[in-house]
Prior knowledge:
The complex is a heterodimer. Chain A is built from 9 helices and 53 strands. Chain A is mostly beta strands. Chain A has a 22-stranded antiparallel barrel.
Amino acid sequence: MNIRKYLKSACLLVVFLVRSFFAFSQDGAITGTVTDDRGAPLPGVTVTAVGGTGVTATGINGKYSINAGAAKTLRFSFIGFAPKEIALTGQRTVNVTLLESAQSLNAVVVVGYGTARKKDLTGAVANVTAKDFSPGVINNPMQQIQGKVAGLAITQPGGDPNANLIVRLRGQTSLSGGQTPLIVVDGIPLDNPNQLSNISASDIASYDVLKDVSATAIYGSRGANGVIIINTKKGAAGRTKVEYNGYVGIDKLRGDFNLLSADEWRAAVKDVPKIDPETIAALDKGANTDWLKAITRTGFSHSNNLAVSGGTETFTYRASLNYMNQQGIVINTGKEQIGLRFNAENKSFDDKLTIQTGLSYNQSNRKLADYNIFEYVNATPPTFPVKNPDGTYFGYSDYHEQNPVAQQMLQTNTSTDYLTQLFAKADYKLFDFVTIGTQGSISHLNTQSGFFQPVLPGVGNKNSANQINGNVDSKKADVHLNFLKDFGKHHLSGTLVYEYNDFVNNNFSAAGQEYLVEDLTNNNLGAGNSAKNAIASYKEMFLIESYLARAVYNYNSTYYLTASVRRDGSNKFGANNRWGTFPSVSAAWRIKNESFLKDVSWLDELKINAGYGIVGNQDAITPYSTLLTLGSGGRFYTPGNPSNLYPDSYTPNQNANPDLKWERRVGKNIGFNFGMFNNRLSGSINAFDDKTKDLLFTYTVPVPPYVYSSILANVGDLRNKGLEVQLSGDVVRGSSFSWSTSGQITFTKTTITSLSGKFNGTEISTDKVPIGVAQGRGYQNNYLTYLTVGQSPYVFYLPKFAGLSPTLDPSTNSNQLYYDADGNKVADITKAKYNYIDPSPKFNYGISNTFNYKQLSLNFFLRGVYGQKLFNNYDNIVSNYTRLPGNNVTKNALTNGIRGSQTASDYWLQNASYLKLDNVTFSYTFNKVKGLESLRLYVTGTNLLTFTPYKGMDPEVVNGDSAQAYIDANMYGYGYYPKSKTFILGASVAFK
Amino acid sequence: MKYSNKYIKLGIVLALCISSSCKKLEPEVYSRVQNVNFWQTPDQIAAGIAPAYSQLRNIPDGNFHDLQEQPSDELVVPARGNDWLAAGQHIQLFTHTWNAQTQQVQDTWTDLYSGVTKINFILSIVNNLQPAPPTLPAINAELKTLRALYYYWLMDLYGNVPLVTDFNTNPNAVKNSTRKEVYDFVEKEIKDNMALLSTDKSLNTYGRLNKYSAFCILAKLYLNSNQYVGTTKYPETIAACDSVINAGYSLEGNYFDNFAQENQNSKENIFVVPFDNINIGGNNWAAQSLHYQNDKNYQIAGGGWNGYCTNAEFYSHFDTTSTYSVRGKNTYRTYNDERAGQFIIGQQYAEVATYPPNANVLSSSTDATLKIKDALTGLDLAFNPDFTDISSPAASFRLAGLRSVKYWPNPGVQTSQSNDMVIFRLADVLLMRAEAALRNGSASNTDLGYVNQIRLRAYSGVQKYAWAMSDLTLNNLLYERGRELAWENWRRQDVIRFGTFANARAPQKLLDADKHWEIFPIPVNQHTANPNLVQNPGYPSF
């Protein structure tokens, strides 16, 4: 057993060190141990006898011994931690816990292709380290920093362990694509930000969020949506460390559709017009089913991460193994994840050659929810039973209505991700100021999904099965040169990089129907009706080639100047538009270093920085958009050719645009950083003003003359302005009690400034582009949101609701009224006056509070959004009395008076501001546990309370990821997995 | 000088690294076809032209079907509680209260115009191939005629639509043309290309336009000419019909063989849209109409969707007298007029129904266990033509209306029936010939003979059902067309032509106040994409 060997040698090492330490301790000396707030020993802490002469430092186990002499006070100081002074009153042992300072200026921040100390930053970069992570049932590591960083909005669309988060940095920067920031994990840019869900949260040491364009410009064409750099934990020289982090948790349904119960249904249907007792009797099967409860459960989850790290002066490593199993709150859903991560660094040739390597492998087995069941829950009368008396599922079938429990339990709907990432880097110090190196990485994501739909009771469908095997591969290589030289007070450093990225995506699928033996599910695809077998495959590629240079200069750590330029080529664009140049410049002035502030002792830091840069966007579009390519136009019948009766036809699969070019974002940022009162209060304020030009967007075009009603083109500009304030303070800094608080607030305003451009040499200009559509049967093409010059993206354009009429209007089959241009109430919605209504939030914010009392710690975290509006499409459909008795309705439907067809008006646009008690953690750190180096136990509750005027299930919905922004639908493929609240019991253990 | 040596080395290393990996960044295309590499062989050209027709798959059973049938008197989709309410769109279509946002009004435009623009694309490619394919003149003639058919329908439905015939048209130059301009274009295109169209009626041109299909378009254009442009063209209609009638098509022995699962050998069908359960999806005829539990007699796996139906008023024009036979506990009926069998009525029984639908229909049984029940409500599954509401939550309303099995469902198939759907067939041409002659004042025994060919086919040759000359009236022809061509996408223009389009009718349709409903509005999404477009008269302007 290797681990045991390591443990043994580590123990021996500790014993040796401790002994040697005590050998030097003198009689009459004061001794003690310095630990951090989690009980981990802190080596290297400077211990000063104030008023005396003794100075020492803590050893590797955090222990020290000092001859205090006549000193009355001991001062403990350590970089990154708040210093502490302890009065000496004759005690011989002084144990001290140091708390990390709210802002540790010397912390190293990764800025892309290099690192910088926090105090030397010239751009807007936020850094979150492990101590600030929110614990909880984490299925995507980004959840750890939700609400913690000004300008970074993270939205969870539902409680689905397999759903993707929505991550937006500084608002809406573009109109196409995922708009998720580029995520770089240990130097490997993820091909798709959603791959992050495959990475164990416990392995992550820090997040560096590159916010302003001058900071992200170094990523050129990939930096348009911002960049988040994630660093995993690394080994450190010293004895081998074995750590365990884990939790067990439960997930419970939070929120309710407020559908009628069976008895409420029975009472309500009596009053339905034209109803006859036979109908009610026929639909009342005698059951009392809460269908939402029927498809949900308490989900149990546990996560375990075991890590071993250590090394010598020249070789360090860390290896970790993680296993997580999370049951979804919806029956038969969940995620199981197994992962392995290893990284190591070796220095040789007098530290001239540094070789780093990293490898990780993760397997995520997912059981997926069939989102149709959320619609069935709303459709099925509560008087239907889940099961028959004999235990079989009660079967029925109607339009978008069948037994949701049978559907979710009987079908197989799985997906397994296998993510392998390999990384290696070699740097050689040519001279003491020049390092040359090369770096390469490979990322391979294989996703295998499987599906089997058996014959469902009461539905009478044919069974069907499929398997899909997809690969997302990327290779990246670079050659880089770094130099770093000081000339007196002048510090100059620079970076030159050549980089090449190659991306290939492919997939293969096979499907069949009509299997005789359903037990085989989708494991023997060929065994069905051979005429129904179907295969398909796809493959695409693209390349990005880049040259970049960056120079950083500072004078006396007071005046800073950073300039960079990057040139990227991407073959997603037309031959004449492939290359783009992305420059940036930024400067900072650390005013605190000026002589006139030297003596202002209460001020620890004061810095102003400003930046300007240009980034490009190519992630938003798929390859080949510039080419006139042909895809299948469907098969056609050629009875004259019996050997191939149904050949495939070929037709243009898009309105090709050979003129496509980079979307460019030109950004300006000014920032202000400060720390005062011994860094008890620190913060930063950033203001930005970004303009995105030549927006890539799928614009609506007329048919005729086009074949398709949309085209990808560079049309229009948008402007994004914002202000971010981040503050943290240590309100109380006592020796046994402390209280620290931090918060952030972000204001953003996005405005479309132009919607004109060129396509094929033709001027395109439009004042209004339709985007979001109301969901619901018959609603197709009923646009709710638009792009309009002068408005924010996804602005609603709706008639103003004017109350209800006693009768149904024949033109709309609805009793809803609207105001026309003259202020009269009209029933015909086509005669109504439409108004623009901006749904975008005015600001969002997060507040965190931590209280420490001795070994106890309490943290609670609140986050919120203000000024957001949502179109409650769910309510629009389900809170409609006319659905009775065949479909269920919400309680709201009994009182809102709406009859007939649903229509879209501002009645359904509801205030969806919210404040959530997102996380409460209570922890206890044990001081001395036999056999353990440290032990911390904690209890966390997440998503506990929501304060909102919004009438829907939850005001936090899919937002900005798709054309359906601000539209809260819960059916027709836009169903939401209900949200959960979570309670976990966790432990962090370091073994001796 | 030690340093400079190293710098040079470093420079060389960097330069090598960069130059060796420098590529031109040409994308490699793997699973798609670049247009420049296509159109090389006759088979590729055929596969490149085929999509011009595939757009027709949206015609017989989709949005187009809704627009051409629901505003007439023969097809209604009532809202059965919340089911088929669909934001009131079907109610709007039946009661003539649609608007520029109604889904079918918006989508049919795109369906038809995509056909036009695909043809514009194909024409721009095939006419620039080097060397030109030897069949180029015939390809051009066929595609231009097909484009004329799409324009015919656009003109018929929307009136004043933009005429775009060049793939590279500046989108800012696209404006409404008048209905007359489109009418003239359709007429001229068909006449200009007629000579080059194939006269082959065999399977070699199956599912494609031949010369006789072109005459059918002309016949439709001329017969409705008075409605389109205010001038009658009855002699021209008669001439166009005669060109088809004399081409050698003949009526099928059984009416339903034109619509059967394997109907490609029909001698009566002139132009069809081929469908196939596996290869060409889109024919969901039976599912659209039949009830969820009709899987028990019509073998629709997964059941129908309980939507499209016809009501008592229209059904009353069918002769439903039958001969009955008793086998065991069951009584079966065979309709005297075959065509009455296309609608199913009354109690449904759990016994596999047999083809053709006119004969041996299980109409009653003393075996109560055979009665199919509506699974959701437990009611006996009995289709009832008498309903006066267009929307009702009553359980019994789920059974309102008679359902169509004209395109006989394929056993075990829910969607994507294999029956090819008929656009033009001889019976329609014969009836058009008789009607044009009658309207022209020139109706003869020839015309009466044409009508009686159809009637006697329906009545299995029993002479007493033949019409006398005095029976050949416009009113009788309107309902003979209804019986013969029910749900075949001609009823809207027929009732406009016969003047009954505006009438009040059950369920719940009121008399139209004016004639603006005879054409549909320009869809609102098209105006959004092209603000040049002007709304049709009678609808709120954009």
